[in-house]
Amino acid sequence: MDEYKYREQHRINEYNLKQSRFFIKERYPNIENISIRLDFTYLGIDKIKKSRTIIYTPEQRDYFKIECINSECVNTDLDLSNEINSMISNKENILKGEKICNGYQDYERFMAKNHHCLATMCFEIEIQYK
Ligand SMILES: [Zn+2]
Question: pTM of the predicted model, to two decimals?
């Protein structure tokens, strides 16, 4: 399969997965919002740093996969679903942590099954309850 087809299929699969998820207001009616502050570092030839904040409202679906900072990344696995689910079960407000992307650095390396992505994600999740 060529790179374009692979990425397109992956994009469609993720879209379908997202559409199959519950709305946050259905699954977690006691949530006001979830805000996720992300600080990415990518240690390629050039070191890249990037921050962003994502806010989830009750109208959105409980799909908490995060896009990798490395646009060439294949099969990124940055996902905060487990963290968020356990925070909600324990009624926690803030969680900080770090994850390393387990995707591949680019398509060529994905085909060769070597060189994992070089992105690290620090996160701070804050949940507001009603
Ligand atoms: Zn990655």
Answer: 0.91
